Amino acid sequence: MPRLTPTTALGGTAPRIDEIGGLRITEIADPSLAALAMRAKKNAAFTKAAKAAFGANLPAPNTAAMTDRHAVIWMGPDQYLVEANSADASLAGTLADNFGSAASITDASDAWVRFDLTGSDNIAMLERLSAADSRSMTAGTATRTPIHHMACLILCREAGASFSIYGPRSSASSLHHALITAAASL
Amino acid sequence: MIIPHPLLGPRDSQEFVYLGDASLINRPDWQAGDAADSFYEYQYLRDNPAGTHRELWYHEMGDRSWLIVTRNTVTHEIISAELANRQTAAAKTKSSRAGGRK
Amino acid sequence: MTQVNRLDGGLIDRNTPLSFSFDGRQLTGYAGDTLASALVANGIRLVGRSFKYHRPRGIISAGSEEPNGLVELRSGARREPNSRVTMTELFDGLDARSQNRWPSLGFDLMSVNDRLSSFLGAGFYYKTFMWPKKFWELVYEPIIRRAAGLGALSGEDDPDVYDRGYRHCDLLIIGAGPAGLMAALTAGRAGAEVILVDEDFRAGGRLTLETHDVGGMAGCDWADSAIAELSTMDNVRIMPRSTAIGVFDHGIYSVVERVADHLAVPQPGKPRQILWRVYAKRALLCAGATERLIAFDNNDRPGIMQAGAVRGFVNRYAAAPAERIAIFTNNDDGHRTAVDLAAAGIDVTAIIDSRDEAPASDVAEVLRGSVVSNSSGRLGLGHVTVRMAGGGHRHLDCGALAVSGGWNPNVHLTCHHRGRPVWQDDIAAFVPGDGGPAGLAVAGAARGIFSTAGALADGQAQAIAQLAEIGITAAASKMPEAESDDINITPMWHVGGTKRAWLDQQNDVTVKDIRQAHQENFRSVEHLKRYTTLGMAGDQGRTSNVLGLSIMAELTGKTIQETGTTIYRPPYTPTPIGVFAGRSTGADFRPTRLPPSHHWAVEQGAVFVEAGAWLRAQWYPREGETKWRQSVDREVLATRQSVGVCDVSTLGKIDIQGRGAAEFVNFVYSNGFATLPVGKTRYGLMLREDGMVMDDGTTARLGEDHFLMTTTTANAGGVYRHLEFVRQCLRPDLDVQLISATDSWAQFAVAGPNSRAVLQQLVDPQHDISNEAFPFMACGNITVCGGLPARLFRISFSGELAYEIAVPARYGDAMIRALMTAGEPYDITPYGTEALGVMRIEKGHVTGNELNGTITARNLGMEKMVSKKKDSIGAILSGREALVAEDGLCLVGLQALNGTDVTAGSHLFAVGTPVDAKHDQGYVTSAAYSPHLEASIGLGFITNGAARHGEIVRAMNPLQGRSAELKIVSPHFIDPEGDRLRA
Fold first, then answer.
1. pLDDT, tens digit, for every residue of C651-690?
2. With 0-12 CB in 10 A as exposed, 13-18 as middle and 19+ as buried, what is C688?
């Protein structure tokens, strides 16, 4: 029986890295993600389980709670995207154990493509891509916003210096094209 | 236009999809004797005011919330924006107190 | 050729000479020139021919309002007609040609129109091209089209790219003249986020064109020092070469930045222009004012210009419009022109001042109470005729006439939300009225404060006031000293005469046209505009409107305020269409979604088709196959005979969880789901509330509180939105959570009698997928290839024994390769969307073709799937009288007879009835060649179809000129009992 080898969202065996001007755009090969949604009338249990699982309070709208092991990103009312800082195939399963009947959990590792953006011109680049006010973002700002008609998420890891852009995995090529085109047009 | 999202602050209306009159959240009772008529009215009969209008907007490119936006259709002034979800819950409580919907 | 009219001084860089050509003549200018100033410096007055009468025309302004100086710029694919010479920065190698003339600018045969002017007045088109009616398209339209427009497009694709951008600020300042710069300094020093846009490449506005001092230094130096200070502030962004073209709701402004128009060719990869969407908490319009002309006979001769433009060319560009210049004014500003020209050594012939009380001048003779009544000269000004105060005439030699009829504040952006300007008598001009866009204030000349000192002070005051509204405190600073002169205008609109006096030079509208409109009762300004085309040119009436209105006011005996203005709309200045498209052109028009097997399919040489945003394999041609049908027929037969595989990841997948999940699914589907056992899949029919079918798909119950719904590829987004509407708005009482899982899974249909045998090689052995253990409509979580989590569904779109196997998307590429290897012994065949379509038509499965928004469950023969025992979306209204009529449309199969083909889109008629709408009985929705039946078949709807199996009908397709005889049959062409899929 064959063993299956994963590919990145762009279809490669190794993550794609582009350096354009002062910008570095890095595809993250194997993000470990889980969608976490609170079940109705489970506020107390959900909050308690989150505190135990993440060691942090749940993030407010437009933000992410950044801890050593996770980024917990606010996605919608009572909905979060949990990002493990290092590859963790059991993320969704662990969370399901932690939250029990207080949450609905779905593995979202393959739902998204993630590109990390570092370098000097990233604000200028983001201004060409998104209506979100990237200039005023601080570490932990998380904004869902369209980029070239794609429903994306911008997560600021360090103000003005480091961002992650999440987009739909099936649109990885189009999003990558948009990013490198914007970087080259500055 | 800018929609003042109750959770996310000002967001460009380009991120939203418009549906229509907020009365669409008041779906009639399917078991009522006049269900055929009340569903017909619910589906097709809407006011089209030049002025203040409560309408449904969906934050498709954002947090996927349905909002009730109260907007002046003449000036485009937005008077308020609330989560439709909470609004529905509140309306239900109120109408049950008032003796149920018509 | 030397620059005959070049003077000393100016803000040009004489160390950087630039060569350019105009109508093939090689000329030189300097860096810092516009094409307009370089033409002026080279003594070229004639630059184009007018639109209707082909009158010789010259430059009249030095700014974006220019109506005459329009040229074809650049050549080849970059050729751009109607480029304003005043807005074109000179670059080395610039190539421009005049427009609307043949064979040459100096000798234009079409100038015969000018002699026919008495026939070509206002309303000419409306009156002339009326009858006979059959001439409209054949004769008149070609004539009008040939005559229309000025320059010509290249007809080639635009080789440049355009971009979009988004910026946010506390205060957007539009215009970097004295008011705008002072506002920017005030707001910038207060720490506010400021964006300062200016359409010029050099900041300063009028300060770059004037000689007077600001703060003890030349005005342009003060502007430079202000820019230098602003450039040190991180919170201030300065955008030169950028025009605010429109104001939209709630503080959204469109700004076009001309990134590379001053270069011969944009740098590689860089955009030519960017359309910025600026989100501003507050904005300040400091757009200045536009000088207007005075109408008199033959006032359109090249050399007759705005006075402020004449002195602007001299002061900023060291370019003299002529050696001898006369001045015609109704206010003190005209006298300032005389002073500047004299200082530059130009002979000022006279100041013709219509006011009896005009001031004296040290530099020229002042002809008080006098007016210019006519002009003469071939292809340019030679003389003007002055009607003297006491009667009598004087002829003056001059190569240019500087006309100052007063200044119109640039109120346009304040009118973009239907704000109406108000008339202010002391300056004889419209100023912004109430009702402008919320959050937009106006400062300086744009609201009629014309002195430099006034503009500086107003810029600061308005900035402080605007920032205070958003909680930012800005401090007042000491104002730099500057002139504070009044212009003392006495309105003077037009000089009566017997010839034509021009108002709108770009559209060739004269005083006589206004009179005619009045006479024919087109008196409202909106009628006047459309009847005469006054103000409909590229400058939206900036140089003409107020003159035209004043004349209509005179004729009707009303005030100008009562006469009113037309509505100004975006864009403020002409804007290339390309910048609105931005990057969304060609292949980048919209993003593409790729299924997980895409790269593998490319390797196989698949032909692709766009399905919504998805790029799907349409078929996989093999060597020797020259027609698509060969490939598709082979794929269908191979699947039906052995096994085929198709990537179906594009179907929408929605993960539904929660204690209320079952009730929720039961509510959104018309058929029952509450009792679906865990581990089973069911076909679901989703209705809109009006009873029409919205979508269909299979939904699997993965757990007590866990469902996985599939949607059609096309409706995935719409169904998700609908489910969120139901969840949040209609059933907030239910505990339900939704998440889209479409992109998470790579899902493959493995179909055909050998499908189980193929899958058994990949599914881990502890999972029994035999028919007994895993029957039709079973589903479950399994593992494949040694522990990889996967999902298996026993569902069939093709009608064969079939499965859909899903693995995490990252393993999709490996999975298709593994399936192909495992299937080798069975000659497994990948199939594309065409074969998929053929097989589903053979099986009678409906898809988007049938679910076209007008179809009910009953039309599909599925009325039993609308449960009356529960509340579900669409159940009540699908019972409406007309929707349950006995003779309604009914889904049928259609089989072509006599070698004809079934064609989708054909309409169906009973044999022997007329082919008209009245006898239309239905239509064909899908068609295919069935290699299995060796016949052309289709699906369609026909009145009372269930009772008509066996009947022959006619299918008419006038659009394609086809007709066919079709036999009505059951829609299930293949295996109607379903034995194959249960095998």
1. 999 999 999 999 999 999 999 999 999 999 999 999 999 9
2. middle
Q: Average pLDDT for residues C767-792, to the nearest whole number? A: 97
User: Which of A2, A131, A169 is the closest to C821 by Cβ?
Assistant: A2
> How near does any CA of chain C get to the CA of A68, in Å?
26
Structure confidence by residue, pLDDT tens digits, C911-926: 999 999 999 999 999 9
Do residues C571 and C608 both lie within one domain? no
Judge whether B57 is closer than 8 Å to chain C, CB to CB. Answer: no
Q: Is C377 left (phi over 0), alpha (psi -120 to 50) or beta?
A: left
**CATH number of the domain residue C933 falls in:** 2.40.30.110
Put simply, the answer to whether B8 touches A62 (Cβ < 8 Å) is yes
Host domain of residue C640: 598-650+744-839
Q: Is residue B83 part of a domain?
A: yes
CB atoms within 10 A of CB C824: 10
In this structure, what CATH number is given to the domain that contains residue A155? 3.30.1360.120
Do the Cβ atoms of C948 and C861 come closer than 8 Å? no
Q: Are C225 and C217 in contact (CB under 8 A)?
A: yes
What average pLDDT does range C187-194 have in this prediction?
A: 98
Structural domain contains residue A6: no
Is the link from the previous residue into C359 a cis peptide, with omega within 30 of 0? no
Nearest CA-CA distance, residue A3 and chain B, Å: 38
Instruction: Look at residue C132 in the predicted model and tell me its pLDDT.
Output: 77
- Sign of the four-CA dihedral B57, B62, B64, B65: negative
Quote the pTM value. 0.94
Query: Chain B: which residues have CB within 8 Å of chain A?
Result: 7-9, 12, 14-15, 60-65, 83, 85
CATH number at residue B24: 3.30.2270.10
In a domain, C389, yes or no: no
User: Looking at chain A from residue 69 to 128, which residues have their Cβ under 8 Å from any Cβ of chain C?
Assistant: 79, 104, 106-112, 127-128
pLDDT confidence of residue C104: 83
Residues spanned by the domain of A163: 17-30+111-184
Chain B residues with beta carbon closer than 8 angstroms to that of A145: 15, 61-62
A38 and A100 belong to one structural domain: yes
Strands C194-197 and C162-174: parallel
What residues of chain B lie within 8 A of the CB of A81, using their CB?
none
Q: Are residues C799 and C703 in the same domain?
A: no
Q: How deeply is C267 buried, as exposed, middle or buried, from its count of CB atoms within 10 A (0-12, 13-18, 19+)?
A: exposed
* B79 interfacial to chain C (CB closer than 8 Å): no
C-beta atoms of A131 and B64 within 8 A: no
Give the gap in angstroms from C-alpha A108 to the nearest C-alpha of chain B.
16
Average pLDDT over residues C750-775: 97
B-C C-beta contacts closer than 8 Å: 68
Cβ distance A40 to C592 less than 8 Å, yes or no, reads no
Tell me the CA distances in angstroms from C160 to C85, C227, C239, C254, one per residue in order.
21, 30, 21, 20
B22 inside domain = yes
Assess contact for A37 and A104: CB atoms under 8 A.
yes
**Whether the Cβ atoms of residue C295 and residue C511 lie closer than 8 Å to each other:** yes
Residue A100 and residue A116 in one domain: no
- Whether A126 and A100 map to the same domain: the answer is no
Residue C295 pLDDT exceeds 80? yes
Instruction: Please identify, among A86, A107, A128, the residue that sits at the C-terminal boundary of a domain.
Output: A107
Question: What is the end-to-end Cα distance of chain B in Å, rounded?
Answer: 35
